[in-house]
Give the backbone structure.
Amino acid sequence: MLYVITGPPGAGKSSWIRAHATARDIVIDLDLMAVAMAGPGASDHDHSPELLRVVHRARQAAVYEAEKVLDTVNVYLIHTMPQAKARARYQRLGARIIVVDPGEAIVRQRVRDMRQPAMDAVVTRWYSQYRKGGSRPVTRQSSRQW
C-alpha cells in the first residue's frame, strides 16, 4: 500500500510516519534523504540547491522502485505539495492520501521556531493552494515536543 503524506512544512508529516510505519516499511522522506547525503553536521531542513537537485533525483528513483513492491510492503512517501500529474499517478496506484495539518497558527509558530525564514513562503503557498477557504485542522496528532 502506498501512503502519500502531505501537509505544510512543520505540520508533523515525518512524525506521523514514525508513529505508523514499521521497520519493514519503506519511507521516502526528502529531508531524511538530504541529511543522509549531506556532510556531517548538515541541517535537518536547510539544504543547498546542489544537494536538493541530487536528492530530488534520488527521490524520483526511490518512488519508481517502490512502486514495484507495493503488493508486498507499505510505502510511506512525503510529498508536501503534489501537483496534478503526481496526484493522478498516486490515484492510479491506489494510494491513501494522508493530510497532516494541525492548523495554520501552529504550523506558522513551528516554522518560526524551527525552520529557516524562507519556509514561511512555502507555508503560505500550501495554505493558499491546498486549503482554499482557510485552514481547518485535519489531524490532532502532535508531531513532537516543539
User: Anything to note?
Assistant: Helices lie at 13-20, 30-37, 49-67, 84-92, 104-114, 119-130. The chain has one domain: 2-130. Residues 2-130 form a domain with the Rossmann fold fold (CATH 3.40.50.300). The two ends are 31 Å apart (CA to CA).
